[in-house]
Amino acid sequence: MGQYLAFDIGGTTIKYGVVHGDQTITDRGVLPTQHNADGAILKALKSITMQVLTTQAIDGIGVSTAGIVGRDGAIQYAGPTIPGYQGTPIKAALADLSHLPVAVVNDVDAALLGEQAGGAAQGRDDVYCVALGTGIGGAYYRHGQLISGAHGTGNSVGYLNYDVSSATNYEQRAATLSLEAQLKSQGVSVIEAFEQAKAGHEPYTAIITAWAQTVATGLAPIVLLLDPEVVVIGGAVSKQGQYLLDLLNPALDQLLPVGLRQTELRVAALGNDAQLVGAVAPFLTAITKK
């Protein structure tokens, strides 16, 4: 079955662990990205790789990372969240260091692959993932392939639905960061607001219902254009489970012709482990990128 070193690189931390063939994870750790000062991220990946290789046999290395990953396993595009990250040759550097096969995938792609391998989309062959967080990311898996477009920039769903009058796009209106900003005047966190809404307390019910309707405006084009079997909702807000689905399903149905939608909405099941499992999924199953 093998065992694989997996990394998950975010804006502030690098999580890592050894993923076994049965998808259990051992030897976990976490490091700060240090805002990638002086190439801190790649240095950390190399350091952890050498530490792990001195203690156990590893069959491959998988990396889940923020940013758009080029077909050469380097960072093709990175926003301001991680300074100086664009162009980082992750795959080449780790392959040269370890002499092992290396897979590098975008973090939303990795979350989707993890959920498809052992989570909310397990066994489904046509799956879309929408990750709600500071921004909004998308990923599409179909018949053993990650579909990312001719230039690798497909599924940039956060930029959907640009509104000229407000100069905002989908993620600026629908990310959980936007919900957090709306709740600031109430002095509560997103988690606290959901608890208040579940208890039927206003204005939290109204605020969260309106936010869910905004989220649905980005899900509707995905359903209409791609008709996936399942859309998995990821990000920390997915922990709201059935309550979140009960908000999104009617909001989505209002935006679509009656009786057209067959796509099922599900919330992510693996939490933060989805990216670690998904990072090594290319070693566990035959996955290609198109």
From TrEMBL:
GO MF term (any one): kinase activity
Gene3D superfamilies given in the database record: 3.30.420.40
Q: Which InterPro entries match?
A: ATPase_NBD (IPR043129), ROK (IPR000600)
Segments crossing the lipid bilayer = none
Keywords in alphabetical order: Kinase, Transferase
A Pfam entry, by short name: ROK
The entry sums up its family as follows: Belongs to the ROK (NagC/XylR) family.
Q: What is this protein called?
A: Glucokinase
